[in-house]
Amino acid sequence: MQVILRIAAQNLRQGGRRVVMLAAALAIATCLLVLVVSQFAAANSHLVAAGTALQSGDLNVGGAYRSSPTRMSPLVIDAAEAEAKIRAILPPGTGIVTRHTGQVRLVSESGMWRTYAWGVNIANEPRLAHLLDQNLVAHATGPTGAAADLSLPRSVVLFESQATRLKARVGDKLTAWARSPQGRTNALDVTVRAIAWDLGALTSWTILLDAATLAELVQAPPASTAQLLVYLDDRRQVAASMVQLRDGLTRGGTELMPYRNQPSYTILEAAETEDWRGQRLFVNTWSDELADFTWRIAANAGIAALLFFVLVVIITIGVTNSMFVAVQQRTREIGTLRSLGMSRSQLVATFVTEGILLGLCSAGVGGLVGAALAIGLDAQGIAVESAAFRDVYFTDTLGFTVDPYQVAAVVGIFALAAGSSAVWPALRAARQDPAAALRNNG
Amino acid sequence: MSWVTNLYLQLRLASANLAGRRAQSAVVALVMASEAFLLLVGLALMGTLDLALERNVTATLAGHAQIYSADAPEALQVFGGHQGIPDAGVVPDFSTVEAVLARVPNVAAIVPMGSGPSFISVGNPVERSLTELRQAVQAKEPSHRAVLAEHSRALIAYLIGTERTSLLANAEDPDTSGQELDRATSNALWEEFERNPLDVLDFLDNHIAPLAGDPRWLLFRYLGTDLERFATYFDRLRVVEGTTVPADHRGVLVNHLYREKRLKNPVARELDLLAEEARDLPADTFRARVQGLQARARTLLRGITVAQRDQLEQALATLVPDRTGGLVAALERFFALTPGNIAARHRSFYDRLAPSLSLYDLEVGDTLVLHAVSRSGFPTAARVKVFGTYRFDGLDGFDAANTFNLIDLTTYRTLIAEPSPDDLAEMTALTAAIERSHGGNIAFDDSLFDAPPTPTKAPSIVRDPVVEASPSMPRAEATTAAESVRRSNPFGHAAVILTDPLRLADTRAELQRAADTAHLGLRVVGWRDAAGIVAQYFDLVRIQLYVGLTIILLVALLIINTAIVIAVLARVRELGTLRTMGCTRGFVMASVLIEIGVLGSAAIATGLLAAVGTLSAAHAQGIPASGNVWRFLFGGTHLHPDFSLGQVGAAFATALVLGFVAALYPALLATRVPPVEAIRRGA
């Protein structure tokens, strides 16, 4: 093996311009691919982090309660019982947060804004507090406010474009209107505690109220909640945990709605036209809940996969061609090696090793350069002046996240592609008659 | 050597070389052909995507350019933005604007528009049936009235028969309501109806209809426009059902897809969705949803007449032969769906059962009350007749446009309640007259707020807790001709249709100049800006695609050209031999380039032919859009890539030039090597 490795390395060294050019092309391809993949990774992680702080848990448990077949409220009537059941099913360490929801009309002196509201207990939601604090706007004249102020009674946190429409500043009082499930209208005065930057479509229809205020406003039955956001230890286990949770709940006698891979509002909308009675729960995952946004992750993955595939094909063509030339140039050498007792398979192994070495070295260098560039660019924090970019990725900066495993995978696959492209030329070399090869002047 | 001999020699040399090194030439040819293939396919796809957006935006709502008020509080986004439809202001008078701007060269037409959100209430079948009956009674149409009365009675009887307990659960006083339900189905009441229809209707409206549940409030986005002009200049508009709104009539054309998604019977809608998703759903989810469908199947029977029930029974008998258990049981059996039978059942549902059902909360011919909020913040309402449903031909996948329902301009003006200049002049004149007669200031506010107007109840398709349609509201299809002549015409924005869309930039500038010169206070934007966030999204995804394609092309070129370099490098010795035979550097260089030229041209032509074939096949078949993002990018369910001769030429030239560039470097190397050295190295 060592001999083969040495011969392959020497051949590469003697390959001259041919090898240098091919290696450069491979390195550039890897470098660019690593950059693209890191950008996608950063964008995706941003999107998921913001989405799972604001709109969704890793898993969500919601409910619909029908007092009569034609009246449905989006409620889990006994929040504590539901939480206890979830805790009994999922492993310890699972975080559970309860939230109220409701449709609220906010009225200021100069405007009106109809929107969905989350009633949150900010002390229990470090993810949300962190996200808000990262995105707080220093408003023209007023103080910035802090996410933690949402724990004060009668609080509301707005997002920039809503505040602009309402001409509201931190400290202003607004009137919040809502209708109870019984059809009664209720109004309360709330104080704007903070204004955060818009996070695209994620925040265009959402405001945050403190949990007690929203519960009072929509006259939610005591002990009820609208949704339980479940945070797992490891988000990657979400599919298995959902099956576990659904099975466990069904076994425990909870009536579940059929699973739909859709956001809760769509699930509830579908349930609205059904006509059973009592309490039913539903479970969905973060990617279901954020389905309006996660298509971007899918689109990125699609573009990356396409890019990867085409590059592998192109590299295969390039390396195959180069190896054919190498075989031609080294006909005599091949003859010598064969007459000295090298078997055909050893000869093939030499060429394949040469391909893998070429791939590994050049893609390795390209990968490292790409990773270094990505880290450098990420540190630069390149600002992107595009409303659409902000809408899609919930950030203003072009970020890059280097995942060493991803880089290693890219390098490994390129090396394998280079190695396997050497097989065909190597087989042709191995078929040559050693005597004829030796006679050849080439 | 004359140049002719020279060329002859070069060509001989080239062909001998190509023939002599077949394998190597084949590789170079293959890579150049792939290069050309990738170039043309890439160019064509990018071009087609660009055209898809332009077509979607310009052919649905935007036209080539849009004009709107320069004082608009928010920038116009024709398709709406994240937070609904932005407030793009109101322009006071269309005729003034048209008089100035229609004269600008290249302007084919200006279509006035105005859009916003309104709400409709639907979903209480009893209420709807009673409203139709009341209209027939008031219109004194005895035959129609008899049919409708039979319909209402059957509906109420059916509801009470199957859902009595549920209905009473909605009642505040179940005992009284129970008695009232009994009365509603009694023969006595319907005999009384013959003598005294309005009293009976009042009873049913006030005591029975509310038990059938709360109406659902639905967002109903409208685009007010000159419907005749709109249909002329947005020629992808197709009426699916019913007719277009006749000139000078109030009316609405409901978007076909909006109606399918929002106003269809939930059972039918769920069946559509299941048929669409069946292949991707896990087995237990599919089963659970089918069970849900079966449990709700009987709601399909709401609101159908006795005759329809008979037809339905007959149709079902042929589809599900097991006759035990009556109609509801037969329906449940029909909905016993499996992934294997769903496609066939879905078809037979529409072919055989749907004709006897009423599948929509809103039928053509119904009257709707649209509830909106005027720009100054007070509630407005307008009653309109549904004349038909429409879709944009071939643009079903462009969701952004398919949420708008088209209404006439008069109704639009009622909803925004913007006083026209004539109104304002009339108001000023009135104020002056009153002040003259009262000799001073009058406290208008006091007189207004002391005696708030009391709305009177009128029958409508909806029961609205906020605003009731008042009897003074014009009849749903009343002619609007007189009004439009008398009044000037405020509008929100207007689409400008150009004769030559390619001259958009120039015409836009001219329009802006003309508007500024005439002090119209207008802003003119191109379709891309008017599309707002829709175009920005598109651009973002497109940029990502472009970056991806560029990287692919770049790396492809690098590798491909490495192949050419390697091929020529392998000939260094031979080229050196040529030099020893007295050939000049120029001759050697030319020989390499000519060889690449000959081989390259043939290879590139082959690659382009393959690309043209692939693109034509893709054009005929259509590349299917998998998922929302692709549907959005493709502007439909399929992308039909197009290419132009220009693109073919550009791909050919680029591939050839790149081939030459790649060959130049090794050719230079070869010419620089001294002949002796060249021979030694090669050996």
Short synopsis of the structure:
The complex is a heterodimer of chains A (442) and B (683). Chain A is α+β, with helices and mostly antiparallel strands.
How would you sum up this structure, described in words?
The complex is a heterodimer of chains A (442) and B (683). Helix content of chain A is 55%, strand content 18%. Chain A is α+β, with helices and mostly antiparallel strands. In chain A, the strands form two sheets. Chain A has a six-stranded mixed beta barrel with strand order 3-4-8-5-7-6. In chain A, strands 11-12 form a two-stranded antiparallel ribbon. In chain A, a hairpin with a 4-residue loop joins strand 3 and strand 4 (112-120). In chain A, helix 1 (2-14) packs across helix 13 (344-380). Chain A is elongated, with a radius of gyration of 31 Å. Chain B is of the alpha+beta class. In chain B, 59% of the residues lie in helices and 12% in strands.
Poorly predicted runs of chain B: 442-472, 479-486
Could you give the distance between the termini of chain A? Answer: 28 Å
Mean pLDDT of chain B, nearest integer? 81
The biggest sheet of chain A amounts to:
6 strands, mixed, barrel
The rounded distance between the terminal residues' Cα atoms of chain B is 31 Å
Oligomeric status of the shown chains? heterodimer
The largest sheet of chain A has its strands arranged as: 3-4-8-5-7-6
Query: Could you report the average pLDDT of chain A, rounded to the nearest whole number?
Result: 86
- Share of helix among residues of chain A? 40-55%
> What structural class results from the helix and strand content of chain A?
alpha+beta
Helical content band of chain B: 55-70%
Number of strands of chain B: 12
**What is the count of helical runs of chain A?**
17
Largest sheet of chain B at a glance? 10 strands, mixed
Q: Pair with the most extensive interface?
A: A-B, 63 and 59 residues
Number of strands of chain A: 12
Measured by DSSP, the beta-strand proportion of chain B falls in 5-15%
